[in-house]
Amino acid sequence: MAKILVVDDSRLSRRFLTGPLRQAGHEVIEADNGEVGLELYREHQPECVFTDLLMPVMDGPTLLARLREISDVPVIVVTADIQQTSRDKCEAHHISAFLNKPFKADDALAALDEALAATRA
After folding, report:
1. How far apart are CA 90 and CA 72, in angstroms?
2. Does residue 86 contact residue 64 with C-beta atoms inside 8 Å?
């Protein structure tokens, strides 16, 4: 299975996502903000990143921009921010998927499967 990085300042939101990912057999690394997420990305080189947008220290859009400077890793945005402008900014960084909170575990796993399949093809 894959190594996945989950970046979200909400412990509860991370738990809702990491539980199904681990049950599906993935190795999960967690970060509570974009700065820590970027450090963990560099250290562990995960195959996919899930990130929230609104976080302290370094927000999701900044994390996306910084990741794109060093990698084309698939990124799935999971956020309660439903503004079209936020989605457009994320898509400009070539994200793999955009999921709104609350999300269904099956939707997150399907988005991950698609993202991983696209990079392995």
Report:
1. 14
2. no
What are the C-alpha distances in Å from 80 to residues 20, 51, 110? 19, 11, 19
Counting Cα atoms < 13 Å in the Cβ hemisphere of 76 gives 26
The domain limits of the chain are 3-120
The rounded average pLDDT for each run of 10 residues, N- to C-terminus, in the chain (121 residues) is: 96 95 97 97 97 92 94 93 77 87 93 91 71
CATH of 3-120, one of 3.40.50.2300, 3.50.50.60, 3.40.50.2000, 3.40.50.300: 3.40.50.2300
